[in-house]
Design goal:
Elements: E1 14-16, E2 22-25, E3 46-51, E4 64-69, E5 80-81, E6 99-100, E7 106-108, E8 124-131, E9 136-145, E10 153-157, E11 161-168, E12 171-175, E13 178-182, E14 186-190, E15 196-199, E16 205-212, E17 237-239, E18 251-257, E19 260-266, E20 273-278, E21 283-286, E22 307-312, E23 319-326, E24 329-331, E25 348-355, E26 371-374, H1 384-392, E27 398-400, E28 405-411, E29 416-418, H2 419-424, H3 432-436, E30 451-452, E31 461-462
Parallel strand pairs: 10-18
Antiparallel strand pairs: 1-17, 2-20, 3-4, 4-20, 5-19, 6-29, 7-26, 8-9, 8-29, 9-16, 11-14, 11-16, 12-13, 12-15, 14-21, 18-19, 22-23, 23-28, 24-27, 25-26, 25-28, 30-31
Length: 474
């Protein structure tokens, strides 16, 4: 059965389908029939439209959802800056803290758990590119929290969509549109603007987040693969409507806006959506359901065959963000160096490890809860020990990655590293290159005797043969 065996069992029900038009009602009859905004919605509810794209976006890109709630979202006090001197996930706005653009390969030791903070305060921007105020680019975060959010608190990001990749611990996420239980080896996407709160039913949590400032995630095109495989649309799960009727308690709504934290008060719960319908909603996905593709003859295909979700730039085939995984899979290619080849890439590659050991980095330096960044045109590939083993391995069919799950956030943008990611976290491995690639040894051997056949006078060339100029000279 292609699904993860989770220790923490599922407790919610879902609707299945990616980019499917869903509708859900917690009270039968709460959804209007044939109209979105009747003069008097059922049961005295308020109709509210949530738009994730411009009204005039092409139909195939348009994402919006109609909510039917006890009170509309606008019923709150003014937002006020909160913790403005310490909470900042857009450091280019601070002259004394900036993004560092450096060509070095980087790798981080496992990031620490922090049991003193909740979800909102656990977010640390490690790297990124672009600017949320221009809706361009992306941010790459580590989260590590030890406390549930306050019972009367909700959070949303106005800056972008959160793609959440848990590495340790369980996230019980209550959103305006319903509930998601998200465990390691699952991912969740919370679109821009949707309010939610995070409980930690099993204690401390840790993981990774890619915040997409522009556009939304889509399934990659399959081309000649056909109509199925990779991540299948039916395996994505969206919540069903679930609401509270609380119009007397004070709530605090936290907003991440241009990288800064703001807070507003309101006298009612934000989780009062009785029914909804549309295309703009949170969802989750079990990575074990990914149907991998690979070579059954020779050569290692490009890692794009492991893309789960993509967000394309204005140039088709070039992604602002790809989410790629390296799950357990069979390798059968003949006469082939089977790990990923050495390469330099116009794309930036930020890698993380959820569990196990990544098959291209067997030296022990790339660990669960750690990360690496190979920026634009930074050479990288298997470490020396992995190369040696793979170059001499007996090429029988072999399954790799058992009990492992590595992933990659890939982007066409040049990714910069924050002060926190480069210095304050104190996790950067200073000897990454020295450990991984400096031990590589040359194996080149000139043929003996050295000669060249270029067809001059029908004779093989020899060193010093003047007829071979400019190819061979003494």
């Amino acid at each position: 059965m292609p699904s993860s065996q989770f220790a923490h069992k599922e407790k919610y029900r879902y609707q299945n389908g990616f980019n499917s038009y869903h509708e859900s009602e917690a009270v039968e009859g709460a959804l209007p029939i044939g109209a979105n905004s009747p003069q008097k919605p059922p049961y005295g509810l308020y109709a509210e439209k949530l738009s994730g794209t411009a009204f005039t976006a092409p139909r195939h890109e348009n994402q919006q959802t109609w909510l039917y709630r006890v009170l509309p979202s606008c019923g709150h006090s003014n937002f006020e800056p909160r913790e403005s001197s310490t909470y900042n996930t857009n450091p280019e706005n601070k002259p004394y803290e900036k993004i560092h653009h450096i060509p070095n390969q980087l790798r981080w030791d496992p990031f620490d758990l922090d049991e003193t903070v909740d979800w909102v305060h656990s977010l640390h921007l490690v790297a990124g590119a672009g600017d949320p105020t221009m809706k361009q680019g992306l941010g790459m975060y580590i989260y590590a929290a030890g406390k549930s959010m306050d019972a009367k608190e909700a959070f949303y990001s106005a800056d972008g969509d959160f793609l959440i990749v848990p590495q340790h611990g369980v996230l019980d996420i209550r959103t305006e549109l319903g509930r998601l239980l998200v465990r390691p080896n699952e991912i969740a996407v919370i679109p821009r603007g949707i309010k939610y709160r995070v409980d930690l039913p099993d204690g401390p949590v840790r993981g990774y987040i890619l915040e997409l400032y522009q556009g939304h995630f889509q399934l990659p095109e399959l081309g000649p693969i056909g109509s199925n495989c990779l991540a299948n649309a039916r395996d994505f799960q969206a919540p069903i409507a679930d609401f509270d009727e609380d119009t007397e308690t004070e709530w605090h709504v936290l907003c991440k806006f241009a990288g800064h934290l703001f807070s507003a008060r309101q006298g009612h719960t934000p989780f009062d959506v009785v029914a909804w319908h549309g295309l703009y909603y949170p969802y989750k996905y079990d990575l074990a359901r990914f149907n991998t593709m690979g070579s059954v003859s020779f050569d290692h295909p490009d890692p794009s065959i492991y893309t789960v979700l993509t967000a394309q730039s204005d140039h088709p085939g070039t992604a602002v963000a790809d989410f790629v995984i390296f799950p357990p899979r069979w390798l059968v290619a003949e006469d082939t160096f089977r790990p990923p080849w050495y390469h330099r890439n116009t794309m930036s590659e930020f890698m993380g490890l959820i569990q196990g050991q990544y098959d291209a980095k067997t030296g022990g330096g790339f660990q669960p809860a750690g990360a690496s960044l190979h920026n634009v045109m930074a050479g990288h590939g298997p470490d020396a020990s992995t190369h040696e083993k793979a170059s001499n391995a007996e090429l029988q069919p072999r399954k790799v990655g058992e009990g492992s799950m590595a992933f990659m956030f890939e982007s066409c943008l040049m990714v910069g590293v924050t002060d926190w990611g480069l210095k304050k976290c104190k996790k950067v491995q200073e000897g990454y290159n020295a450990e991984s690639w400096e031990p590589l040894k040359p194996h080149f051997k000139r043929p003996t005797p050295a000669k060249i056949d270029n067809g001059v006078d029908g004779k093989d060339g020899v060193i010093g043969d003047k007829a071979q100029v400019p190819h061979w000279t003494s």
